[in-house]
Amino acid sequence: MLSQDMIERILDRASEKGADFAEVFEEERIQQETQITQDEIEECQNAKECGIGIRLFKDKTRYYAYTNNRSEEAIFQLVSDLTKAMKGDCMARQRLQEKKIYKMGSETQVVSNKSLKERIAPARRAVAAGMSQDEIVRMRVKLTDMEQLVQIANTEGVYVQDNRVKTRLYIAAYAQNGTDVQSGYYGPGAMRGHEYYDQIDVEAAAREAARAAKVILHAKPCRGGQMPVVVANGFGGLLFHEACGHSLESTVIARGSSEFCGLLGKKVASDVVTLVDDGSIAGEWGSLHVDDEGTPTQKNVLIENGILKSYMVDKLDGLRAGLKPTGSARRQNYRHYPVARMTNTYIAPGKSTPEEIISSTEKGIYVKSINGGSVDPSTGDFNFNASECYMIQNGKLSEPVRGVTLIGNGGTILKAVDMVADDFELRQGFCYASSGALYIGAGQPTIRVRNMTVGGIE
To answer: Where does the Metalloprotease TldD/E C-terminal domain lie (predicted)?
Structure first.
């Protein structure tokens, strides 16, 4: 890593050249990914990459460039080109944006702390457990182990180092009936090392993926319409991550292009909704000790009992919007500048039980798993694909259905949540946006939206 003296000289040089703010972000990352099926090892990647990103602000405008050449000459040339671009030097800007002399490929080399046999043992156990289930014709298991050391310093006196360790087991099971093949998945992960695989029930996770695949295989096509929607605990929280969370990030707030602009202190949801983003939860997949600007992560209550309390804010968009940073600035790696992004986002537990919610729903749909979808943060309009779903008839779960799409508006469904259960669970996934692919948690207890558009067959 760069010495503190070297970092101070970089920051001093940027300040001398007129930057209002300067930051150095340095990263060393080791990542191992192994994917296997019942037949073979499909993929095995072991890599190390190192790089530095330098970010300047001038009059609330961002200037950013990166390099994996950590020589003093290369770094100070990068600072020189950035400060010239900041002053309107078109040639310097062209060097940064077009020649890509500072945008080289990452350093990649083989690394290994464990033997391949040791590393894939949990995956082998998961494959065996899944293949033991009826109708399962294929299993695919991916193990991800990552260790990232970052060093962050800026002209406001921040100087921190953070070591981040992530581990995840992603299991996909495929069930077949004739020519029809359907899949189910389960993907536990944590901010822990390889020992995490010994702390979870790998076989149970594989059986859960297999169970979901078999349910979907025999599900009937869903008939759409307007109806109550009950969303199960766990990764059902992805609905609110996408439909509401992105609209509460300062990236869109500062531009005035969010449906939640200017509504702090106003009622934006029903009384039973409390929405939280918390990157400080010990050991969780979406957690960090400090964000990618060096600000300690914290619990940010975004909506409390229906009232909008806070946004997720990074430094630059905080300056633009007159808001204080909330430890929410994130980036995939040194090639990206940080912006406000979610960490572990969830609906807080309520006072109902899942059984009460289902029994009080005469007719509707129960969504156990959401795959993903899209949202327009400026309007909150969303469209999600759901996988494992069941119809609710006379207050009871009935036949499974598939081909379910949830269509609506984030601000609207927040007001339409009328029951929240006490069975909170947080699940693990990834979020893809402007600063890259990030580790995130999404969770909730079982909730009911009293009316939503459900797409299915005509």
So the answer is: 225-456
Domains and CATH numbers, the chain: 116-151+158-218 (3.30.2290.10), 225-455 (no CATH)
Residues 23 and 14: their CA atoms lie apart, in Å, by 9
pLDDT in tens, 347-367: 999 999 999 999 999 999 999
β-partners of residue 160 are: 152
pTM of full prediction above 0.85: yes
Kindly report the backbone phi and psi dihedral angles of residue 422, in degrees, each rounded to the nearest multiple of 5, phi listed first.
-110, 10
